[in-house]
Design a protein that fits this description.
Helices cover 35% and strands 19% of the residues. The chain is of the alpha/beta class and 378 residues long. The strands form 4 sheets. It has an 8-stranded mixed sheet with strand order 7-6-15-13-14-12-10-11, with helices on both faces. A hairpin with a 5-residue loop joins strand 4 and strand 5. The longest helix is centred in the N-terminal third of the chain and has 21 residues. The protein is globular, with a radius of gyration of 24 Å.
């Protein structure tokens, strides 16, 4: 191929290279990406050890990638080009109808799921109190009418049935999949731009738990509902589809409920203590989901004025955060343990020091199939 003005093309190419280099060095480098909701790579530290083992060059590559001029724009352009080419996915996210961004189907490797269910089952068999398991399917397995016409199958139903068979009669299984699939408005049970269930979904799961316990659930009329706009979740952050409209977060509060929350972490001597179930300071930040329980922590302790003296232990991932305000209606004391961060002792050892009346496992199916931290149960 020949150009009419090769010199102009060469000058243009050189100008782009020089301009990109100049922008990289002159523009300020951010420490956090608002769109991707993650900390960006920091400037590499040069060391003989890093050169010898090759880690320095990997750090340099990550730093250059994270701070490439106009990175957010280029990520978005690439994502929309993939859509224009007919691909239904942007990385690990599937773009559906009406702005839905679904995490891709889970891997069909069942070994971790089997190991985790065996660990939960062995733990439940060793307890003298009731143990419940709430395993939450992914949005793609429930909100099927919003998926694109061509997509990979979601194996959630089969995986949950496998988990249920392993559990047997060792614990009380809460069939969230069946309950959610029977809902009239399934698209209200999950966020469009995030992998979590909505507050509506969490309330429905709470009602399912109360039904299993043969206890009346608090009516939705007891709660005042506040809607907070401009919520962009984890699916949005991974997709690069920056033109996707935001979600709303619904904050359900019971004016009669009083609660004191203590947040415990392994690297903090004293807990963070606050009145009320919601951490409203997060509503002004890029990631608003930590409005529920301040995000992920080793242990969260809740004291309430509930008309009960029962104590509940919740072993969980972040799905439990939006569920906690409803559980607070039923228990005087709740402890929520996240095994990704709770490392100083096993849950069994902790329960020897802190007896409870009931244990509830709350896990998204993706965690049950991928998280290897359930070894810390016993």
């Amino acid at each position: 191929m020949q150009f009419r003005h090769p010199r102009a093309v060469a000058l243009l190419f050189a100008g782009v290279l020089i301009g990109t280099q100049a922008a990289f060095w002159l523009l300020p480098h951010r420490s956090f990406s608002q769109n991707e909701k993650r900390v960006l790579a920091q400037k590499p530290v040069i060391s003989a050890e890093g050169i010898a083992d090759g880690s320095l060059f990997q750090d340099v590559e990550r730093y250059l990638s994270d701070h490439f001029p106009g990175r957010d724009g280029w990520v978005g352009v690439n994502a929309y080009l993939e859509q224009a080419e007919g691909r239904g996915a942007a990385g690990s996210i599937i773009s559906g109808a009406d702005g839905w961004l679904f995490p891709a189907p889970l891997s069909d490797d069942r070994q971790i799921l089997q190991d985790n269910m065996q660990a939960i089952t062995a733990f439940a068999q060793a307890q003298s109190v009731p143990v419940y398991l709430m395993a939450i399917p992914t949005a793609g397995a429930v909100v099927e009418d919003k998926l694109p016409a061509l997509h990979l199958d979601y194996p959630d139903a089969d995986m949950l049935e496998q988990a249920r068979r392993i559990a047997g009669d060792s614990l009380q299984w809460l069939d969230v999949m069946e309950d959610f699939s029977a809902a009239e408005e399934r698209d209200k049970l999950y966020y469009r731009t995030d992998h979590h269930w909505t507050t509506e979904g969490a309330y429905r799961a709470y009602c399912l738990l109360m039904q299993e316990m043969r206890e009346p659930a608090v009516s939705r009329d007891a709660f005042s509902v506040e809607r907070v706009s401009d919520f962009y979740g984890t699916s949005y952050s991974k997709s690069g589809l920056w033109l996707t409209p935001p979600d709303e977060i619904e904050l359900w509060t019971d004016p009669d409920l009083q609660a004191v929350i203590s947040v415990h972490d392994g690297n903090r001597r004293e807990p963070i203590v606050q009145q009320g179930m919601l951490f409203r300071e997060y509503l002004s930040e890029a990631d608003k989901y930590p409005v529920f329980l301040s995000g992920n922590h080793a242990r969260i302790h809740i004291e309430t004025n509930a008309d009960s003296d029962k104590r509940l232990l919740v072993v969980k991932d972040s799905y439990a955060h939006a569920l906690a305000p409803f559980l607070a209606e039923e228990y005087r004391t709740i402890d929520l343990i996240d095994l990704r961060y709770f490392k100083r002792q096993t849950v069994s050892d902790w329960m020897q020091e802190h007896p409870v009346d009931e244990v509830l496992f709350v896990y998204g199916l993706s965690s049950l199939a991928e998280d290897k931290n359930l070894q810390w149960l016993a």
